Amino acid sequence: MLAAAAACLGAAACCPAPPRPEPGPREAVQAYVARIEAGDYEGALVSVDPAAGPIAPESLADFVARGGAPLSTSLRELGGSGGPIEVQLEARIRGPSGELLLVKTDQGWRIRSGTLLPGQARSPEEALDRFLHAIEARHCAGLVRLSPPDVQARHSLESLEAGCERRLDELGEAAKALRAARDRLLRVSESKAVCACRPGLKLVLEKKGDRWYVVDF
């Protein structure tokens, strides 16, 4: 019996321990919240996908300071047990003229956002790219679709497109400076982003609902 026990122990010593499971979505959020609560904003940003845009630790600290009770509630709820987790498989198709985001559903792959859909920018970077592509293609209908829903509701599409047609040459020149400054796009809040192209010229984007729109240029 002692020999059998020794053999078992020897076999266990030769077998490596199973790998630890990779942290899941809930653990990622809990780590993010814990670091925010500890005042470690730089550490908290480790849990943030770079595709969310450039966020400085100072910007995150300011966002938390201004969030007040509503944000405190969200930190407590989402950083705790939270609700059910929905995991989706995503794919991005990129090309010189645009980008598409697709998600895997029970019915197969479906396009969620991108250049081939009207007014569907889900990030300020995507809204900026769509804006540039539309200007460079001299596509006023595409530019109009990037304006906020309240602007489209107040004006007819015909009048908006006519105004765009009158400014196309001016916009084309400004777009060159904007494209050169694309990497300087800065999120100044959770729902606002600014890209300063040159003195006196900047693009302002705002999030309305879950979509980003160009509100000033």
Strand order of the largest sheet: 4-5-6-7
Which topology of the largest domain does CATH recognise? Nuclear Transport Factor 2, Chain: A
- Ends: how far apart? 83 Å
What CATH first level of the largest domain would be assigned? Alpha Beta
**Strand percent estimate:** 15-25%
Rg to the nearest angstrom? 24 Å
**Total helical elements:** 8
Structural domains: how many: 2
- Structure classification: alpha+beta
Main beta sheet: 4 strands, antiparallel
Share of residues in helices: 40-55%
Instruction: Please identify, by name, the CATH architecture of the largest domain.
Output: Roll
Shape: globular
Strands, total number: 7
Instruction: Give the averaged pLDDT, no decimals.
Output: 77
Order of helices and strands: HHHHEEEHHHHEEEE
- Spans of at least 5 consecutive residues whose pLDDT stays below 50 are none
Layout of strands and helices, then pairs:
Elements: H1 2-14, H2 25-37, H3 41-44, H4 57-78, E1 90-95, E2 98-105, E3 108-114, H5 124-136, H6 140-145, H7 149-154, H8 157-180, E4 186-189, E5 192-198, E6 201-208, E7 211-216
Antiparallel strand pairs: 1-2, 2-3, 4-5, 5-6, 6-7
Helix pairs in contact: 2-4
